[in-house]
Write a structure and sequence with these properties.
Blueprint (H helix, E strand, L loop, with lengths): L1 H20 L12 H18 L9 H4 L6 H13 L5 H19 L8 H13 L6 E3 L2 E3 L1 H7 L12 H12 L13 H9 L17 H11 L8 E6 L2 E6 H15 L6 E2 L7 E2 H14 L10 E2 L2 E2 H6 L20 H18 L20 H8 L10 H14 L5 H27 L11 H12 L3 H4 L5 H62 L1
Helix pairs in contact: 2-14, 4-6, 4-14, 5-16, 6-7, 6-8, 7-8, 8-9, 8-10, 10-11, 10-12, 12-14, 16-17, 17-18, 18-20
Protein backbone atom coordinates (compact mmCIF):
# COMPACT_ATOMS: atom_id res chain seq x y z
CA UNK A 1 0.00 0.00 0.00
CA UNK A 2 2.90 2.33 0.85
CA UNK A 3 4.52 1.67 -2.53
CA UNK A 4 1.25 2.45 -4.32
CA UNK A 5 0.89 5.72 -2.37
CA UNK A 6 4.48 6.68 -3.23
CA UNK A 7 3.86 5.88 -6.89
CA UNK A 8 0.73 8.03 -7.00
CA UNK A 9 2.61 10.86 -5.29
CA UNK A 10 5.40 10.56 -7.85
CA UNK A 11 2.95 10.74 -10.76
CA UNK A 12 1.22 13.80 -9.32
CA UNK A 13 4.56 15.48 -8.63
CA UNK A 14 5.80 14.74 -12.14
CA UNK A 15 2.64 16.08 -13.72
CA UNK A 16 2.77 19.22 -11.61
CA UNK A 17 6.44 19.77 -12.38
CA UNK A 18 5.82 19.25 -16.12
CA UNK A 19 2.99 21.78 -16.03
CA UNK A 20 5.30 24.28 -14.32
CA UNK A 21 7.83 23.82 -17.11
CA UNK A 22 5.30 24.65 -19.83
CA UNK A 23 5.78 28.14 -21.26
CA UNK A 24 3.16 30.61 -20.05
CA UNK A 25 2.11 31.10 -23.70
CA UNK A 26 0.99 27.45 -23.82
CA UNK A 27 -1.19 27.67 -20.72
CA UNK A 28 -4.83 28.43 -21.40
CA UNK A 29 -6.22 31.37 -19.45
CA UNK A 30 -9.86 30.40 -19.46
CA UNK A 31 -11.45 26.94 -19.32
CA UNK A 32 -15.24 27.29 -19.03
CA UNK A 33 -17.58 24.96 -17.22
CA UNK A 34 -20.41 23.16 -19.01
CA UNK A 35 -22.84 25.60 -17.41
CA UNK A 36 -20.92 28.57 -18.80
CA UNK A 37 -20.93 27.12 -22.31
CA UNK A 38 -24.64 26.39 -22.11
CA UNK A 39 -25.26 29.90 -20.78
CA UNK A 40 -23.48 31.44 -23.77
CA UNK A 41 -25.50 29.20 -26.12
CA UNK A 42 -28.73 30.39 -24.50
CA UNK A 43 -27.47 33.95 -24.83
CA UNK A 44 -27.19 33.49 -28.60
CA UNK A 45 -30.76 32.21 -28.68
CA UNK A 46 -32.04 35.11 -26.58
CA UNK A 47 -30.28 37.61 -28.82
CA UNK A 48 -31.72 36.02 -31.95
CA UNK A 49 -35.19 36.01 -30.42
CA UNK A 50 -35.03 39.75 -29.72
CA UNK A 51 -33.42 40.48 -33.10
CA UNK A 52 -36.26 38.66 -34.85
CA UNK A 53 -39.15 40.39 -33.14
CA UNK A 54 -39.01 39.46 -29.45
CA UNK A 55 -40.46 36.02 -30.02
CA UNK A 56 -41.36 33.79 -27.11
CA UNK A 57 -39.51 30.98 -28.89
CA UNK A 58 -36.68 31.30 -31.38
CA UNK A 59 -38.07 28.39 -33.40
CA UNK A 60 -41.63 29.67 -33.50
CA UNK A 61 -44.21 28.69 -36.13
CA UNK A 62 -43.04 31.39 -38.54
CA UNK A 63 -39.39 30.29 -38.52
CA UNK A 64 -40.22 26.57 -38.49
CA UNK A 65 -42.39 27.17 -41.58
CA UNK A 66 -39.09 27.47 -43.47
CA UNK A 67 -37.72 24.13 -42.19
CA UNK A 68 -35.92 22.27 -44.95
CA UNK A 69 -35.69 25.42 -47.06
CA UNK A 70 -33.95 28.01 -44.88
CA UNK A 71 -30.40 27.21 -43.76
CA UNK A 72 -30.67 29.22 -40.54
CA UNK A 73 -33.86 27.44 -39.41
CA UNK A 74 -32.29 24.02 -40.00
CA UNK A 75 -29.05 24.72 -38.15
CA UNK A 76 -30.83 26.41 -35.24
CA UNK A 77 -32.92 23.27 -34.85
CA UNK A 78 -29.85 21.04 -35.13
CA UNK A 79 -27.80 22.97 -32.57
CA UNK A 80 -30.67 23.28 -30.08
CA UNK A 81 -31.38 19.56 -30.37
CA UNK A 82 -27.72 18.71 -29.76
CA UNK A 83 -27.70 21.03 -26.75
CA UNK A 84 -30.78 19.26 -25.38
CA UNK A 85 -32.85 22.45 -25.43
CA UNK A 86 -36.63 22.40 -25.71
CA UNK A 87 -38.52 23.33 -28.87
CA UNK A 88 -41.29 21.73 -30.91
CA UNK A 89 -39.30 18.99 -32.63
CA UNK A 90 -42.42 17.33 -34.06
CA UNK A 91 -43.33 20.62 -35.75
CA UNK A 92 -39.85 20.86 -37.22
CA UNK A 93 -39.94 17.26 -38.51
CA UNK A 94 -43.44 17.60 -39.95
CA UNK A 95 -42.75 20.91 -41.67
CA UNK A 96 -39.32 19.93 -43.00
CA UNK A 97 -40.73 16.71 -44.46
CA UNK A 98 -43.68 18.56 -46.02
CA UNK A 99 -41.40 21.20 -47.54
CA UNK A 100 -39.09 18.52 -48.92
CA UNK A 101 -42.05 16.59 -50.35
CA UNK A 102 -43.41 19.77 -51.96
CA UNK A 103 -40.09 20.45 -53.67
CA UNK A 104 -39.92 16.87 -54.92
CA UNK A 105 -43.46 17.27 -56.31
CA UNK A 106 -42.51 20.48 -58.09
CA UNK A 107 -39.12 19.53 -59.54
CA UNK A 108 -38.45 15.91 -58.62
CA UNK A 109 -35.60 16.73 -56.23
CA UNK A 110 -33.95 19.41 -54.12
CA UNK A 111 -31.23 21.77 -55.35
CA UNK A 112 -29.75 20.42 -58.62
CA UNK A 113 -26.25 21.73 -57.92
CA UNK A 114 -25.89 21.74 -54.13
CA UNK A 115 -25.75 18.24 -52.67
CA UNK A 116 -25.18 19.79 -49.23
CA UNK A 117 -28.87 20.67 -49.11
CA UNK A 118 -29.70 16.97 -48.84
CA UNK A 119 -26.99 16.56 -46.19
CA UNK A 120 -28.06 19.53 -44.07
CA UNK A 121 -31.72 18.51 -44.00
CA UNK A 122 -30.80 14.88 -43.26
CA UNK A 123 -28.60 15.82 -40.29
CA UNK A 124 -31.18 18.21 -38.88
CA UNK A 125 -34.06 15.75 -39.22
CA UNK A 126 -32.01 13.07 -37.49
CA UNK A 127 -31.02 15.42 -34.66
CA UNK A 128 -34.71 16.16 -34.03
CA UNK A 129 -35.72 12.49 -34.09
CA UNK A 130 -36.88 12.25 -37.71
CA UNK A 131 -35.92 9.82 -40.46
CA UNK A 132 -34.53 11.40 -43.64
CA UNK A 133 -34.35 7.97 -45.30
CA UNK A 134 -38.13 7.46 -45.07
CA UNK A 135 -40.09 10.66 -45.77
CA UNK A 136 -43.57 9.39 -46.56
CA UNK A 137 -45.44 10.96 -49.48
CA UNK A 138 -48.50 10.02 -51.50
CA UNK A 139 -46.19 8.87 -54.32
CA UNK A 140 -43.87 6.77 -52.16
CA UNK A 141 -41.01 7.36 -49.75
CA UNK A 142 -38.21 9.87 -50.25
CA UNK A 143 -34.74 8.76 -49.14
CA UNK A 144 -32.50 11.80 -48.73
CA UNK A 145 -29.47 9.67 -47.84
CA UNK A 146 -29.73 7.70 -51.07
CA UNK A 147 -30.65 10.65 -53.28
CA UNK A 148 -28.15 13.00 -51.69
CA UNK A 149 -25.19 10.77 -50.84
CA UNK A 150 -24.47 7.31 -52.19
CA UNK A 151 -26.70 7.60 -55.28
CA UNK A 152 -26.28 11.32 -55.80
CA UNK A 153 -23.90 10.56 -58.67
CA UNK A 154 -26.76 9.05 -60.70
CA UNK A 155 -27.98 12.58 -61.41
CA UNK A 156 -24.99 14.81 -60.61
CA UNK A 157 -21.52 14.19 -59.15
CA UNK A 158 -21.42 14.32 -55.37
CA UNK A 159 -18.37 16.55 -55.76
CA UNK A 160 -20.00 18.97 -58.21
CA UNK A 161 -20.17 21.46 -55.37
CA UNK A 162 -16.49 20.88 -54.69
CA UNK A 163 -15.08 19.24 -51.59
CA UNK A 164 -18.09 20.49 -49.59
CA UNK A 165 -20.33 17.88 -51.19
CA UNK A 166 -17.93 15.08 -50.24
CA UNK A 167 -17.40 16.34 -46.68
CA UNK A 168 -21.06 16.78 -45.80
CA UNK A 169 -22.06 13.65 -47.66
CA UNK A 170 -19.69 11.63 -45.47
CA UNK A 171 -20.99 13.35 -42.33
CA UNK A 172 -24.58 12.50 -43.28
CA UNK A 173 -23.67 8.92 -44.14
CA UNK A 174 -21.82 8.39 -40.86
CA UNK A 175 -24.32 10.25 -38.67
CA UNK A 176 -26.00 7.01 -37.59
CA UNK A 177 -23.83 4.59 -39.58
CA UNK A 178 -25.98 4.13 -42.69
CA UNK A 179 -25.24 1.04 -44.77
CA UNK A 180 -24.41 1.64 -48.42
CA UNK A 181 -26.29 -0.86 -50.61
CA UNK A 182 -24.39 -2.86 -53.21
CA UNK A 183 -24.47 -1.25 -56.62
CA UNK A 184 -24.63 2.29 -55.25
CA UNK A 185 -22.88 4.97 -57.25
CA UNK A 186 -20.62 5.97 -54.34
CA UNK A 187 -19.25 4.17 -51.30
CA UNK A 188 -17.65 5.35 -48.09
CA UNK A 189 -14.29 4.46 -49.56
CA UNK A 190 -14.84 6.51 -52.72
CA UNK A 191 -16.00 9.53 -50.71
CA UNK A 192 -13.06 9.32 -48.29
CA UNK A 193 -10.68 8.94 -51.25
CA UNK A 194 -12.29 11.98 -52.85
CA UNK A 195 -11.66 14.08 -49.74
CA UNK A 196 -8.08 12.85 -49.31
CA UNK A 197 -7.32 13.59 -52.96
CA UNK A 198 -8.08 17.27 -52.29
CA UNK A 199 -5.26 17.57 -49.75
CA UNK A 200 -2.92 20.47 -50.54
CA UNK A 201 0.90 20.17 -50.35
CA UNK A 202 0.91 21.88 -46.94
CA UNK A 203 -1.62 19.40 -45.51
CA UNK A 204 -4.63 21.70 -45.66
CA UNK A 205 -7.79 21.79 -47.75
CA UNK A 206 -9.63 24.55 -49.57
CA UNK A 207 -12.77 25.15 -51.58
CA UNK A 208 -11.13 27.12 -54.40
CA UNK A 209 -7.54 27.82 -55.37
CA UNK A 210 -4.44 26.27 -53.90
CA UNK A 211 -4.12 27.97 -50.51
CA UNK A 212 -5.28 26.17 -47.36
CA UNK A 213 -8.45 27.51 -45.81
CA UNK A 214 -9.12 27.12 -42.09
CA UNK A 215 -12.86 26.56 -42.57
CA UNK A 216 -12.60 23.80 -45.16
CA UNK A 217 -9.61 22.18 -43.47
CA UNK A 218 -11.58 21.99 -40.23
CA UNK A 219 -14.68 20.62 -41.98
CA UNK A 220 -12.58 17.94 -43.68
CA UNK A 221 -11.12 16.95 -40.30
CA UNK A 222 -14.63 16.72 -38.80
CA UNK A 223 -15.69 14.32 -41.54
CA UNK A 224 -12.51 12.21 -41.37
CA UNK A 225 -12.40 12.04 -37.55
CA UNK A 226 -14.27 8.70 -37.23
CA UNK A 227 -11.62 7.04 -39.42
CA UNK A 228 -8.55 8.24 -37.54
CA UNK A 229 -7.78 4.80 -36.10
CA UNK A 230 -8.57 2.96 -39.35
CA UNK A 231 -5.38 1.64 -40.91
CA UNK A 232 -6.92 1.38 -44.39
CA UNK A 233 -4.75 3.03 -47.01
CA UNK A 234 -6.30 4.87 -49.94
CA UNK A 235 -4.67 5.33 -53.31
CA UNK A 236 -5.31 8.95 -54.19
CA UNK A 237 -3.97 11.35 -56.79
CA UNK A 238 -2.52 14.52 -55.29
CA UNK A 239 -1.02 17.14 -57.61
CA UNK A 240 -0.82 14.53 -60.36
CA UNK A 241 1.01 12.03 -58.15
CA UNK A 242 -0.55 8.77 -56.96
CA UNK A 243 -0.07 8.26 -53.24
CA UNK A 244 -1.05 5.69 -50.66
CA UNK A 245 -2.56 7.61 -47.75
CA UNK A 246 -4.02 6.56 -44.39
CA UNK A 247 -6.60 8.86 -42.86
CA UNK A 248 -4.58 9.44 -39.68
CA UNK A 249 -1.61 10.67 -41.71
CA UNK A 250 -3.69 13.29 -43.50
CA UNK A 251 -5.43 14.25 -40.26
CA UNK A 252 -2.13 14.73 -38.42
CA UNK A 253 -0.84 16.98 -41.20
CA UNK A 254 -4.03 19.06 -41.22
CA UNK A 255 -4.04 19.40 -37.43
CA UNK A 256 -0.42 20.56 -37.47
CA UNK A 257 -1.26 23.12 -40.17
CA UNK A 258 -4.24 24.46 -38.23
CA UNK A 259 -2.01 24.85 -35.19
CA UNK A 260 0.34 26.97 -37.30
CA UNK A 261 -2.56 28.98 -38.72
CA UNK A 262 -3.95 29.93 -35.31
CA UNK A 263 -3.53 33.62 -34.46
CA UNK A 264 -2.07 34.87 -31.18
CA UNK A 265 -5.59 35.83 -30.10
CA UNK A 266 -6.72 32.20 -30.41
CA UNK A 267 -8.88 32.71 -33.49
CA UNK A 268 -8.39 31.89 -37.16
CA UNK A 269 -8.25 33.67 -40.46
CA UNK A 270 -10.01 32.28 -43.49
CA UNK A 271 -9.06 33.25 -47.01
CA UNK A 272 -12.63 32.55 -47.96
CA UNK A 273 -13.64 35.34 -45.59
CA UNK A 274 -11.51 37.96 -47.36
CA UNK A 275 -8.46 37.44 -45.20
CA UNK A 276 -10.05 38.55 -41.94
CA UNK A 277 -9.80 36.86 -38.57
CA UNK A 278 -13.36 35.79 -38.00
CA UNK A 279 -15.73 33.93 -35.75
CA UNK A 280 -17.00 31.35 -38.23
CA UNK A 281 -13.57 29.93 -39.09
CA UNK A 282 -12.76 29.61 -35.39
CA UNK A 283 -16.08 27.86 -34.73
CA UNK A 284 -15.34 25.28 -37.44
CA UNK A 285 -11.93 24.56 -35.92
CA UNK A 286 -13.51 24.08 -32.48
CA UNK A 287 -16.03 21.59 -33.93
CA UNK A 288 -13.22 19.68 -35.67
CA UNK A 289 -11.04 19.46 -32.54
CA UNK A 290 -13.99 18.16 -30.50
CA UNK A 291 -14.67 15.51 -33.17
CA UNK A 292 -11.01 14.41 -32.97
CA UNK A 293 -10.99 14.37 -29.17
CA UNK A 294 -8.48 17.24 -29.01
CA UNK A 295 -9.18 19.59 -26.12
CA UNK A 296 -9.99 23.00 -27.64
CA UNK A 297 -9.61 24.69 -24.25
CA UNK A 298 -6.14 23.54 -23.25
CA UNK A 299 -4.31 21.48 -25.87
CA UNK A 300 -0.87 23.17 -26.13
CA UNK A 301 -0.99 22.98 -29.93
CA UNK A 302 -3.99 25.26 -29.89
CA UNK A 303 -3.03 27.78 -27.23
CA UNK A 304 -1.23 30.86 -28.51
CA UNK A 305 -0.09 33.61 -26.18
CA UNK A 306 -2.32 32.09 -23.51
CA UNK A 307 -5.37 32.17 -25.81
CA UNK A 308 -7.15 28.94 -26.73
CA UNK A 309 -9.64 28.29 -29.52
CA UNK A 310 -12.32 28.98 -26.94
CA UNK A 311 -10.85 32.43 -26.28
CA UNK A 312 -10.71 32.94 -30.04
CA UNK A 313 -14.46 32.39 -30.32
CA UNK A 314 -15.48 34.38 -27.26
CA UNK A 315 -13.70 37.53 -28.43
CA UNK A 316 -16.46 37.87 -31.05
CA UNK A 317 -19.24 37.83 -28.47
CA UNK A 318 -21.06 41.10 -27.85
CA UNK A 319 -22.58 42.36 -24.62
CA UNK A 320 -26.04 41.50 -25.99
CA UNK A 321 -25.14 37.81 -26.34
CA UNK A 322 -24.82 37.87 -30.12
CA UNK A 323 -21.68 37.14 -32.14
CA UNK A 324 -20.15 39.23 -34.90
CA UNK A 325 -18.29 38.01 -37.97
CA UNK A 326 -15.14 40.11 -37.66
CA UNK A 327 -13.72 42.66 -35.25
CA UNK A 328 -11.66 44.27 -38.01
CA UNK A 329 -14.67 45.09 -40.18
CA UNK A 330 -16.99 45.78 -37.24
CA UNK A 331 -19.61 43.60 -38.92
CA UNK A 332 -22.93 43.36 -37.13
CA UNK A 333 -24.47 40.15 -35.82
CA UNK A 334 -26.08 38.03 -38.51
CA UNK A 335 -27.75 34.65 -38.78
CA UNK A 336 -24.80 32.87 -40.37
CA UNK A 337 -22.51 33.82 -37.48
CA UNK A 338 -25.22 33.03 -34.94
CA UNK A 339 -26.01 29.50 -36.03
CA UNK A 340 -22.34 28.61 -36.53
CA UNK A 341 -21.53 29.95 -33.05
CA UNK A 342 -24.48 27.99 -31.64
CA UNK A 343 -23.27 24.79 -33.34
CA UNK A 344 -19.79 25.40 -31.91
CA UNK A 345 -21.28 25.81 -28.43
CA UNK A 346 -23.14 22.54 -28.90
CA UNK A 347 -19.90 20.78 -29.89
CA UNK A 348 -17.97 22.30 -26.97
CA UNK A 349 -20.74 21.54 -24.48
CA UNK A 350 -20.94 17.92 -25.61
CA UNK A 351 -17.14 17.57 -25.49
CA UNK A 352 -17.00 18.98 -21.96
CA UNK A 353 -19.85 16.73 -20.88
CA UNK A 354 -18.25 13.57 -22.26
CA UNK A 355 -21.01 13.12 -24.84
CA UNK A 356 -20.80 11.96 -28.44
CA UNK A 357 -19.38 14.45 -30.98
CA UNK A 358 -21.70 16.93 -32.65
CA UNK A 359 -22.39 14.94 -35.81
CA UNK A 360 -22.45 11.49 -34.20
CA UNK A 361 -26.23 11.15 -33.96
CA UNK A 362 -26.43 7.55 -32.79
CA UNK A 363 -27.65 8.77 -29.41
CA UNK A 364 -30.80 10.37 -30.85
CA UNK A 365 -34.14 8.68 -30.21
CA UNK A 366 -37.02 8.67 -32.73
CA UNK A 367 -39.58 11.37 -31.98
CA UNK A 368 -42.71 10.17 -30.20
CA UNK A 369 -45.85 11.41 -31.93
CA UNK A 370 -49.26 11.69 -30.30
CA UNK A 371 -52.52 13.54 -31.00
CA UNK A 372 -53.66 15.27 -27.81
CA UNK A 373 -56.94 16.85 -26.73
CA UNK A 374 -55.33 20.25 -27.15
CA UNK A 375 -54.59 19.36 -30.77
CA UNK A 376 -58.22 18.46 -31.36
CA UNK A 377 -59.31 21.74 -29.75
CA UNK A 378 -56.97 23.67 -32.05
CA UNK A 379 -58.46 22.01 -35.14
CA UNK A 380 -62.00 22.74 -33.92
CA UNK A 381 -61.09 26.40 -33.42
CA UNK A 382 -59.63 26.95 -36.91
CA UNK A 383 -61.27 30.02 -38.50
CA UNK A 384 -63.20 29.89 -41.78
CA UNK A 385 -60.71 32.28 -43.41
CA UNK A 386 -57.18 30.93 -43.05
CA UNK A 387 -53.85 32.64 -43.62
CA UNK A 388 -50.25 31.49 -43.94
CA UNK A 389 -49.92 31.97 -40.20
CA UNK A 390 -51.58 28.57 -39.71
CA UNK A 391 -49.24 26.66 -42.03
CA UNK A 392 -46.88 25.13 -39.45
CA UNK A 393 -49.65 24.15 -37.05
CA UNK A 394 -51.86 22.61 -39.72
CA UNK A 395 -48.95 20.67 -41.27
CA UNK A 396 -47.89 19.46 -37.81
CA UNK A 397 -51.37 18.34 -36.85
CA UNK A 398 -51.87 16.59 -40.18
CA UNK A 399 -48.54 14.80 -39.58
CA UNK A 400 -49.76 13.73 -36.14
CA UNK A 401 -53.03 12.49 -37.59
CA UNK A 402 -51.21 10.36 -40.15
CA UNK A 403 -48.73 8.98 -37.63
CA UNK A 404 -51.37 8.07 -35.05
CA UNK A 405 -54.07 6.89 -37.44
CA UNK A 406 -56.54 9.41 -36.01
CA UNK A 407 -58.71 10.04 -39.08
CA UNK A 408 -61.40 12.08 -37.33
CA UNK A 409 -59.71 15.36 -38.22
CA UNK A 410 -57.97 14.29 -41.42
CA UNK A 411 -60.54 15.75 -43.83
CA UNK A 412 -60.69 19.18 -42.17
CA UNK A 413 -56.92 19.43 -41.86
CA UNK A 414 -56.39 18.30 -45.46
CA UNK A 415 -58.84 20.95 -46.65
CA UNK A 416 -57.19 23.60 -44.46
CA UNK A 417 -53.77 22.71 -45.79
CA UNK A 418 -55.00 22.93 -49.39
CA UNK A 419 -56.33 26.44 -48.70
CA UNK A 420 -53.09 27.55 -47.07
CA UNK A 421 -51.05 25.98 -49.87
CA UNK A 422 -52.99 28.17 -52.30
CA UNK A 423 -52.08 31.27 -50.30
CA UNK A 424 -48.42 30.23 -50.14
CA UNK A 425 -48.35 29.64 -53.92
CA UNK A 426 -49.75 33.12 -54.40
CA UNK A 427 -47.04 34.56 -52.14
CA UNK A 428 -44.34 32.57 -53.94
CA UNK A 429 -45.58 33.78 -57.32
CA UNK A 430 -45.71 37.35 -56.03
CA UNK A 431 -42.14 37.10 -54.73
CA UNK A 432 -41.00 35.78 -58.11
CA UNK A 433 -42.81 38.59 -59.94
CA UNK A 434 -41.22 41.21 -57.70
CA UNK A 435 -37.80 39.63 -58.10
CA UNK A 436 -38.18 39.75 -61.89
CA UNK A 437 -39.05 43.45 -61.92
CA UNK A 438 -36.41 45.90 -63.16
CA UNK A 439 -34.77 48.19 -60.62
CA UNK A 440 -36.89 51.33 -59.94
CA UNK A 441 -34.57 53.50 -62.03
CA UNK A 442 -35.00 51.09 -64.96
CA UNK A 443 -38.80 50.97 -64.88
CA UNK A 444 -40.87 52.40 -67.69
CA UNK A 445 -44.58 52.91 -68.27
CA UNK A 446 -44.68 49.58 -70.07
CA UNK A 447 -44.06 47.94 -66.66
CA UNK A 448 -46.98 49.72 -65.01
CA UNK A 449 -49.49 46.94 -65.65
CA UNK A 450 -47.38 44.21 -64.03
CA UNK A 451 -46.40 46.44 -61.11
CA UNK A 452 -50.02 47.43 -60.40
CA UNK A 453 -51.10 43.76 -60.65
CA UNK A 454 -48.44 42.79 -58.12
CA UNK A 455 -49.44 45.68 -55.83
CA UNK A 456 -53.08 44.56 -56.03
CA UNK A 457 -52.10 40.97 -55.18
CA UNK A 458 -50.05 42.23 -52.24
CA UNK A 459 -52.92 44.38 -51.00
CA UNK A 460 -55.27 41.38 -50.99
CA UNK A 461 -53.07 39.50 -48.50
CA UNK A 462 -53.61 39.40 -44.75
CA UNK A 463 -51.28 41.44 -42.59
CA UNK A 464 -49.43 38.28 -41.58
CA UNK A 465 -49.04 37.06 -45.16
CA UNK A 466 -47.70 40.46 -46.19
CA UNK A 467 -44.73 39.80 -43.90
CA UNK A 468 -43.88 36.75 -46.05
CA UNK A 469 -43.44 38.88 -49.16
CA UNK A 470 -39.68 39.27 -49.38
CA UNK A 471 -39.72 42.19 -51.80
CA UNK A 472 -42.48 44.29 -50.23
CA UNK A 473 -40.23 47.36 -50.03
CA UNK A 474 -39.07 46.88 -53.61
CA UNK A 475 -42.69 46.58 -54.72
CA UNK A 476 -43.59 49.80 -52.90
CA UNK A 477 -40.66 51.58 -54.56
CA UNK A 478 -41.63 50.19 -57.97
CA UNK A 479 -45.25 51.30 -57.55
CA UNK A 480 -44.14 54.76 -56.45
CA UNK A 481 -41.94 54.98 -59.55
CA UNK A 482 -44.60 53.89 -62.07
CA UNK A 483 -47.15 56.13 -60.34
CA UNK A 484 -44.73 59.04 -60.75
CA UNK A 485 -44.15 58.14 -64.38
CA UNK A 486 -47.90 57.92 -64.94
CA UNK A 487 -48.55 61.23 -63.21
CA UNK A 488 -45.78 62.79 -65.27
CA UNK A 489 -47.39 61.41 -68.41
CA UNK A 490 -50.84 62.65 -67.38
CA UNK A 491 -49.38 66.04 -66.58
CA UNK A 492 -47.56 66.14 -69.91
CA UNK A 493 -50.70 65.11 -71.77
CA UNK A 494 -52.74 67.66 -69.82
CA UNK A 495 -50.23 70.40 -70.55
CA UNK A 496 -50.13 69.39 -74.18
CA UNK A 497 -53.91 69.41 -74.35
CA UNK A 498 -54.00 72.78 -72.62
CA UNK A 499 -51.43 74.09 -75.08
CA UNK A 500 -53.50 72.83 -77.99
CA UNK A 501 -56.63 74.40 -76.55
CA UNK A 502 -54.77 77.67 -76.01
CA UNK A 503 -53.44 77.62 -79.55
CA UNK A 504 -56.92 76.90 -80.88
CA UNK A 505 -58.32 79.64 -78.73
CA UNK A 506 -55.74 82.11 -80.03
CA UNK A 507 -56.28 80.98 -83.62
CA UNK A 508 -60.03 81.32 -83.22
CA UNK A 509 -59.64 84.75 -81.63
CA UNK A 510 -57.42 85.85 -84.48
CA UNK A 511 -59.81 84.45 -87.02
CA UNK A 512 -62.69 86.08 -85.22
CA UNK A 513 -60.90 89.43 -85.23
CA UNK A 514 -59.95 89.02 -88.87
CA UNK A 515 -63.55 88.15 -89.74
CA UNK A 516 -64.84 91.12 -87.80
CA UNK A 517 -62.24 93.39 -89.42
CA UNK A 518 -63.14 92.09 -92.85
CA UNK A 519 -66.80 92.69 -92.12
CA UNK A 520 -66.03 96.23 -90.98
CA UNK A 521 -64.00 96.82 -94.13
CA UNK A 522 -66.82 95.47 -96.25
CA UNK A 523 -69.28 97.79 -94.49
CA UNK A 524 -67.01 100.80 -95.07
CA UNK A 525 -66.57 99.86 -98.72
CA UNK A 526 -70.30 99.54 -99.14
CA UNK A 527 -70.78 102.92 -97.46
CA UNK A 528 -68.34 104.62 -99.86
CA UNK A 529 -69.97 102.90 -102.80
CA UNK A 530 -73.40 104.22 -101.78
CA UNK A 531 -72.05 107.76 -101.46
CA UNK A 532 -70.60 107.60 -104.97
CA UNK A 533 -73.93 106.45 -106.37
CA UNK A 534 -75.80 109.33 -104.86
Amino acid sequence: MKKIALRIFAIIFAATFAAMLLPASLCAKNIPSCEEILGIAKGIIEYEKSANGSRDFLLDDKLIAEAGTLTATDWYAFAMARLGLDFDRIAYIATAEENVAARYRESGALDPSRATEWHRISLCLLACGGDPAAIVTEKGNINLISDGVYNRGNTAPLGRQGINGLIWGLLALDSIGYDVPEGSHDTRESIISGILSEELPDGGFCFLGDEADADITAMALTALAPYYNDETRYNVTVSGEVRSVAVHEAVDRAVALLSEMQCETGDFMSFGAFGERNCESTCQVAIALCALGINPFSDPRFVKNGNSVWDGIIRYRGDDGGFIHSIASQASVNRVVSYQALCAMAALYRFSSGMRPLFDLRDMQPAKVSFEESDAAYVDALPDMLTGEYYTRVVTLLYKVKCTGNTAYAEKLTSAKAEIDGIRRKIKSLNEDIDAMPAPDKLSLSDRGSVLAAAKAYGSLSEYDKTLVVGAESLAAAKAKVDTLFRTLVLAVSLSAAAVVLVLFIVLRIRHRMTRRRREMDELAAMYENEDTE
